[in-house]
Amino acid sequence: MDLNPESCISLNDGHKMPIIGFGTYAPDKCEKCLAEEATKAAIDVGFRHIDCAYFYGNEADVGRAIKRKIEDGTVRREDLFYTGKLWNTFHTPELVQTALEESLKDLQLDYMDLFIIHMPIGLKPGENLIPMDENGQFLYHSVDLRETWEAMEKCKDLGLARSIGVSNFNRRQLELILNKPGLKYKPVCNQVECHLYLNQNKLLEFCKSRDIVLVGYGILGSSRDNKWIHQDLPVLLEDPVLNAVAMKHHKTPAQVALRYFLQSGVVALAKSSNSKRIKENFQVFDFNLPNEDMENLKSLNKNLRYMDARVWKEHPQFPFHDEY
User: Fold this and answer.
1) Is 306 a catalytic site residue?
2) pTM for this one?
3) Which sites bind substrate (predicted)?
4) Domains: count for the chain
């Protein structure tokens, strides 16, 4: 595949997804309003794939940015690829379409290019996005993921989402959907944590064998969010091997990390609220990593998760007990 700033990957339903995307998640300590300025900056430098989620709490800000960039003539709606996500409290089939429509209203969009199940972990429906009882115990909700998927398929049929997929699913959970009797649409993608310390090689090969695109988040090593990330974990972008390759190519460690996954066939999401880094993260199409560098970077894998979601490890659908 010839990689260039306009490169897209074909999805199994015939639509196309830009191979590099702009991630909009920010830790609670960051002001949500930064998402609007960051998204505008991302579109200005060339990003056409915008990844957001109901759970991030900033869809209205991201939507305003998209609206402004369409109004000022920078892009047309059809130039953009927007990904949104179904949060864990909306897995009940009758809530799926309502959740999607609520997001579209906040975004001021008529449709999403891609709507994905954020996690396979169902939580109790209600106003609280992370519901707990009076003792601080999470309130789980048991829903058959195949039924949630059927509701996703209806959203595609209604034109509310052009493509549908999943996120944070392991191989077994993907097969549950793929082997569902009466399956109408396969997931087009599985969006998962993916970086040089967790290169997801086995999951990538499985997804390729089923014509499912692997989309990687956390490729630059995560936001170091205190709420979800252990602060004693190594900082990916400080890795000496990665930095040596970056020096060799006169690129930043982030650019090399992104390039590695693009060359591996992973759709890469890059996240930043810093305009200089947003621009740098898109400048990954003017160099190529030779096989030697690719192998050296591949050897950094240590199956280390930053986002291990271990707070939900007792959930029957917890995805990370499996190897992949």
Assistant:
1) no
2) 0.96
3) 118
4) 1
